[in-house]
Amino acid sequence: MTLEEMDSVLLKHKDMYMGQLFNFLKIKSISTDTGAIRQCAGVLKDDMEALGIRTRMMETDGNPVVYGELMNENNRFTLLIYGHYDVQAVEPLELWESDPFEPEIRNGRIYARGAGDNKGQLMAQLLGIKTYQKLYGELPINIKFVFEGEEELGSVHLPEFVDKNKALLEADLVYTADGSSHNSGNPLILLGVRGILNFEMTIKTADFDNHSGNTGNIVPNPVWKTIELLNTMRDENGNVLVEGFYDNIREPSQTDMRLLSSLPYDQKDIKEKIGFTDLNMDGETYYRKLTMEPTFNIAGMESGYTGDNAKTIIPSTATVSIDMRLVADQDPADIFRKIEAHVEEFDPDIKVTYRGAMHPSRTPSDLEIVQVVTDAVGEAYKKIPLVQPSMPGSLPDYVWTDYLGTPSIIMPYANFDQHNHSPNENLKVENFFGGIKCTCNLVKALGEYSKDS
């Protein structure tokens, strides 16, 4: 089987493959819409069964997991493919140039909610399996599939699902197509993720809003108190001041730093693509900050009045929403306890509310299977892949590396500027078919590896 034969199959079935993707994208499977979620899970189950995948919908305390497997007792290697069929909400709707659930192609891009995150990449994996079957017939490896419907909610019930089904999910490698490719356009292999901790802090100073003149200098303003609190938690250089926050962080290895230093860095291009013209740092600093260092981000603040009319008040409450990206060996529960202790010392009346978390994860870069996947990806794209020890964002990767003890590799198929979570989310057509080809070639390579080893 050659790459040219794969290209021939893709060309022959291009319209059918696009039709299957469009049918999937039309379903409004926003994580919180139970009806649409179940409809989408049902369509996905049907698509998988059409490929001969033994599929079942497995219930959780939230949205169902669509599980499937292609097993052959003669195969010695098992690959587990992970993805998610839920999508983000579409607001603000007025900023979309077309209906987010009526996919259309403009200038070589598929525009729809979920095109890149994650329906397009999920479908590319399934169609990669289909392409292999058309070319070669029976698969040379076993494949298991876990497609969840709550990733956009923080994969709330996935850890429990994996923990309860360890034997069912046993595999030699977990492979995920999610996230954005490198801004250079080169294929990108990710060996881990940053974790995340979400929480809110609410400060109340009075029972109701007050007149800013009549009670000015008398009733304290909760916004000022919020600012004072935040200034005790992070300094002007971005260093987190919460005691113990940096304990237990796994320092990047020499191999990690070598991989980071080998990543291409085009500052001008990145400035344009992220819309931040003041970016001014070297490549090593850029990648280290993105992947190996934790963050303390203010996602939003709510207090008082900011409308068009005059309303001079001292607000009674202020709420600040925080998300922290955590790196390998930081425990979100431990960090949250330290946050609570810090706030308690500042003012015990401030309410701290936990909103969710994911653990960080990292697969060692010196594993043999990492090189096997790297070679397969490079062959499919005819480019040497970039290998990054961690992605900047968060996925529930730890359930594979921690719960199952299985190496996990993430290979984004979507373009860097996919605008996931934003209006006009898109997936380049060439990226979609590139992902199909990559999946097909990976199956071939893992089959050869399992025979050789």
UniProtKB/TrEMBL annotation:
Example GO molecular function: metal ion binding
Entry-linked InterPro entries: Cyt/Met_Dipeptidase (IPR051458), Peptidase_M20 (IPR002933), Peptidase_M20_dimer (IPR011650)
Keyword list, A-Z: Hydrolase, Metal-binding, Protease
A GO BP annotation: proteolysis
SUPFAM superfamilies attached to this UniProt entry: Zn-dependent exopeptidases
Chain ranges of the Peptidase M20 dimerisation domain: 192-348
Name of this chain's protein: N-formyl-4-amino-5-aminomethyl-2-methylpyrimidine deformylase
Species name: Jeotgalicoccus saudimassiliensis
Source lineage: Bacteria, Bacillati, Bacillota, Bacilli, Bacillales
